[in-house]
Amino acid sequence: MKHIFLLCALSLGFFMGNAQNKAVEDITADEIIATYLENIGGKDNWKALTAMRMEGKMAQMGMEFPGVVMQVPPNKQRIEVNIQGQQMIQAYDGETAWWINPFMGGADAQPMPAEMASEFTKEKFEDDFIDYAEKGHTVELLGEAEVDGVMTYEVKLTKKDGSEEFHYFDPEYMVPIMQKTILSEGQMKGQAVENYLSDYQEFEGLMIPTYIESKLGGATQFSMTVTKVELNPELDETLFAYPKGK
Which residue has the higher pLDDT, 192 or 45? Predict the structure, then answer.
């Protein structure tokens, strides 16, 4: 899931066993990814997840509002936001990306605008770095890069479809503190979307960032502070299905 983050203190006790700070010439992209997956709870434990539900406070354009994010594999998701008493829903059922936006079109479900749908449907439940080679992705360590005063390892992920992402790993705890993509279409084509991740916390043995801030072209667009995480909740499939005919 994915959407800058002011860097908050990481949970030192969890990471201390794997803390390291190697020179870039002494480490490989595969070593970074292996340590990262171990530090966030282990690849097998993440692969065993059947669903995730997160609650939090979202902020945009000077407003703060409650929100819920629900996901099930391989790529179904639903986001509910309450804005001034009006509920906005964005969802993807694996085939159709749809939304209910009372501020644009009323209370009926509509197919999501093409540009938004294109980005929304790219999100996957499973971390792209898990078994990345089997998925047809490649990784490359580009070197070091500074992110908000922190020197990081910059790892380029090229997906099977040719799309590219840039991930910036804290060299001591080997978790990403920023992810960057370049928009490939729409009015904002060519601009960088930067998602900053911080305040990692442990939930049933898995480490999850609980503060997420997204910037577009260097300007903050959205942030979310996660207040509750449920792992493997029972989520009805109808939550994600496009309510045709309604």
Answer: 45
